[in-house]
TrEMBL record:
Matches recorded under NCBIfam families: rfaE_dom_I
Keyword vocabulary terms for this entry: Kinase, Nucleotidyltransferase, Transferase
Species for this entry: Mucilaginibacter phyllosphaerae
EC main group: transferase
Pfam families in alphabetical order: PfkB
Domain Carbohydrate kinase PfkB, first and last residues per copy: 17-313
Gene name tied to this protein: rfaE1
Protein name: D-beta-D-heptose 7-phosphate kinase/D-beta-D-heptose 1-phosphate adenosyltransferase
Superkingdom of this protein's organism: Bacteria
Length: 327
């Protein structure tokens, strides 16, 4: 039984040492009540009740891994500003190694501000610059990351299309990991999946997969398999793991297909759910579980976090409790 296997690993299994490389950001929430419209424009007036910020993007992946019990190194790019200080301070306080975070004076730290009335998001305001890194910074970044790849059990590339993952840098990171026998798991973004060639797992959602495979839409299993196999051929990945919202998650290789039905009983906020999925997958793979087992656990983890507001995290014990409640 999978729950028994996980409990045994928690007692005597290895503590995963994981490297997350990716686009870093801050998620800011402004939450209040909206009971009337502005006289200036047909928009709601939000009377603010509380505000909070959480690490987002690849930083949220790192937080998810930390909550599960892994040792984490985080690498990426921020601006050289007060938001970068806020972000690194939070991460250091939580025990996440930030030696791989570089500051780029040509961009601000990405901040996504969500204004919410109760549980309803009214607007999102993004402050960001997404141009590629300069060649000198790419070289410096790669030189710094080589040793971290060597120390890691597995490597996650968390791509939010904010400028870090140029094709050359992405390929060099994957090549470095493969030369050292480290599997690379990718949360992709954008249309150029060729840059992920050589990865072990690529984890798009349904919409991202359709766009990358250049298909109009994915509405059934046949279309899903066709799109996934286009990407498998393009990237030589071992697996495509597709998150399917209300339908759950699909695991696709050249030889097999498996659908894991959705575990959520209610949905409050899907922000960061993809980060939780990839973090949980990699954590349990690093402990020695196979891909299907790791995805089953990730499916339960996603069900937990989407019941909460913001980029939430979960624990192994909560995952086991969720699985027990559905047995």
């Amino acid at each position: 039984m999978l729950t028994d296997k996980v409990r045994k690993l928690q007692q005597s299994g290895p503590v995963p040492n994981l490297l997350v490389i990716g686009d870093l950001m801050i998620d800011q929430y402004i939450i209040g009540d909206a009971t009337r419209l502005s006289p200036e424009a047909p928009v709601p007036i939000v009377n603010v009740k509380k505000e909070f910020t959480t690490p987002g993007g690849a930083a949220n992946v790192a937080q998810n891994l930390l909550s599960l019990g892994a040792r984490i190194s985080l690498a990426g790019i921020t601006g050289d500003d007060i938001d970068a200080v806020r972000l690194t301070d939070i991460l250091l306080q939580e025990g996440i190694n930030t030696d791989g975070i570089f500051k780029d004076t040509t961009r601000p730290t990405t901040v996504k501000t969500r204004v919410m009335a109760g549980s309803h998001q009214l607007v999102r305001v993004d402050r960001e610059v997404t141009h590629p890194l300069g060649m000198d910074m790419q070289a410096d970044f790669l030189a710094q990351i080589k040793n971290k790849i060597a120390e890691a059990d597995l490597v996650i590339l968390s791509d939010y299309n904010k400028g870090l993952f140029s094709e050359d840098l992405t390929q060099e990171l994957i090549s470095q990991a493969n030369r050292q026998g480290k599997k690379v798991v990718i949360d992709p973004k954008g249309l150029n999946y060729g840059k992920y060639k050589g990865a072990y797992i690529i984890k798009p959602n349904r919409k991202e997969l359709a766009e990358a495979a250049k298909t109009e839409k994915i509405t059934n299993t046949a279309e899903l398999l066709e799109a996934a196999r286009i990407i498998l051929k393009q990237t030589d990945a071992e697996y495509i793991v597709v998150t399917l919202s209300e339908q759950g998650m699909a695991i696709i290789s050249q030889l097999a297909y498996k659908l894991l039905p959705v575990k959520a009983t209610s949905v409050f906020d899907v922000t960061g759910a993809g980060d939780t999925v990839i973090a949980t997958m990699v954590y349990f793979m690093a402990q020695g579980l196979d891909v299907e087992e790791a995805c089953e656990l990730a499916n339960h983890a996603a069900a937990i976090v989407i019941r909460q507001t913001g980029s939430a995290v979960t624990t192994v014990e909560e995952i086991l409790e969720d699985m027990g409640a559905r047995d």
